[in-house]
Structures are given as C-alpha cells and as structure tokens.
TrEMBL record:
GO terms for biological process: organic acid phosphorylation. This is Glycerate kinase. Keywords: Kinase, Transferase. The keyword Ribonucleoprotein does not apply. GO terms for molecular function: glycerate kinase activity. It comes from Tetragenococcus osmophilus. InterPro entries: Glyc_kinase_flavodox-like_fold, Glycerate_kinase, Glycerate_kinase_RE-like, Glycerate_kinase_sf.
Amino acid sequence: MKVVSVIDSFKGCASSEELNEAALLDLSSVTWQEKVNIPIADGGEGTMEAIYATNGGKWVLTTSKDPLGNDIEGSYLITSLKNKKVAVIESAVFIGLQHLDPSEESIRKATSYGLGLVVKDALQREVGEIYVTLGGSATSDGGLGMLAALDRVSYSTKGKENPLLTSTDIGFNSNEQLFKQTKLFAIADVTNPYTGENGFSKVFGPQKGASTAIVKEMETKAKELLEKVEKQYGTNLNDIKGTGAAGGLGAAVVLLGGTIIEGFPTIAEMIGLEETIKEADLIFTGEGKIDAQTENGKVPYGVATLAQKYHVPVIALCGSRSQEIGEMSRLTLGTFCIQLGPVSWQEALDKQRTLKNIRLLAYELSQVLLKGT
C-alpha cells in the first residue's frame, strides 16, 4: 500500500520535509511498500523548498535590502514549470519578521523596497513568469516600497522609511515596458482588501508593531492612496481580493499589472500533488494549529479536499487543535494534537520533541487504522 505525508511546516519549529519524514519513519515497510514525503506550503515559508523538491531548479543568490534598509543577501529559485522558465521569490526571505523586532519604531521604518530589488533582479534573468509569495512579511507600507524599487512610484524617502507614514509627495509613474515580456503573480493565503475593517492596516498593523494611533494613521493614508489609484487608473483596489495581503503587497503586484492567486491550489498544481494523492491508500496532513480558520485556504483543508475527491482517508496532525475545526471534521478520519500532555509554549516549539511526538502518533494511528480494516 501507499502512504503519503503532506504536512505543512510548524512555524518556528520544524519544516514540512522534517515533519513528513518523522510521520513516515516507523510505519512498517511490509504494509506500506511506498512511503512518500511531499514537502508542501500555502504560499508562506517553505514554498520555494516545496517547489524545488519536486521540480528542481537553480538557487540564485542576490544582494538586497532588509525592511530597515540594511544590506543583506538572500536566495530565490529559478525553475521550470510547464516548460517555462520561472522565478519563485519568498517575501519573507528579504523583508520577513526575522529582520526586526515589531514595534512602533520599526513599523515607521520598515519598507518593502528590498523585495522590489529582488523582483528587478529576476526580471534581468529573462524569466517568463515571476511568483512572489506574500506570507511572513514585516512591512505595512501599502506596497509602496516594492513599487518604488521598480520605478512605479516615486517619493522623497525612497528605500529608507515607511513611505505610507512618512511621505507626502507620493506619485505614480508610467512603466509599461517593465513586465511586457514577463508575467507577475502574487501567491497569497489571505483575501484581505486594501482598506476597511479587514484591510491591511487594521488586521495586520497591530501584529507588526502598530499602536492604535498608528493604525488609524495608516488607514487614513491607505484610503488616500486608494482614491488616488482609482482616480488615475479607474481601479478600485478593494474590488480585488488579496490587495491587502502582506501589508499591501498584493496591491503592489496589481499595480504592476500582475495577478493575485491563491496559495495552496497554486502550489499543489506546481508540484503535481493531485496525481500523488489519487494513488494513495492513506494520507497524513497537518500544520501547527488547526482550527475553524483552517478551511480558509490552509494546507490541511486543501489536502483533505483533494483526497475526498478520490475517497482516500486522511489523518490530520497538529501542534495545537481547537474544539471547533469546521469542515476538517467532515473531511478527515480525525484531527489529532501531537502533545502528550500540558506543555509550555517553549516546549511546544522544541523541534526534537515535536518530531518524536509526531513519529509516535502517526505510527499508533496507522496501527489503529490497519486493525480496523
């Protein structure tokens, strides 16, 4: 029989590949003649590695700027998808939260300028498509920094501070030739609009250090930009799902002529996940936390939905489980927390402990399943 493990990374703890390996390790090779480890992501951390594991490619090391304007080096992936040369860039590598401590000071300084520099580097390598993942960014600049690096907007504090909060002279430039030969896509795992109660200022601002006063200021400036874009280009950014993703980076991609696409379906297609799932006899999936929000485009929900299409049983494993898990109750044999008892947050994030627990639980659940057949 064939067992497939497609567990998303436990953020800050263990990678998708490590978790899959642990889940499969003790399963009997006599019963499970084929054990398949599929690294997966939903457009956040680990996306490049998931695509590389299936498609291969070349890692490109480039210099850029972190959110605070410091020089950094980072890598992105150039690979082949459907016979096209494409680049895959993770925002978090260059402008992620690991580069700063979220605070009122940092949110006034953090900019997405460095991400724009990386996109510019990829353009010079004559790729047919560029995919930018939006998960894990530390910025809330409305996408202005990225646009400035690509000469789509101009302002006085270019590359040095959050222009949404510090610039009053923001102007849009015409740069029609930039993506004439290359298609640009943003891979997003959220559908937030640009402004409003679910916009980037109010939803993501506090997570990135914004006080109530700063959130209000950001929202006011974002609305001004929204109106300016609609007046100049006839486009209401709030009518496009995901423009508020990653502090407004979704909007930047739209203003560059790009398209915002859903995370899990895109990654699943890139790695041929459906073909692997339909041939399986059992599937393990999971992520760090499974709750009622998991059905909003997260990996476990996507995997379970594909598996149901082919009547393949699914077991979900997680570091933390809510009582209410929405559609996951219907789509899986069960959703199980790997903790063996009450634990501290620090203990829950211990990699070796996590891998040991997931290894044990996957084995025991597979044994229960076999004895019940």
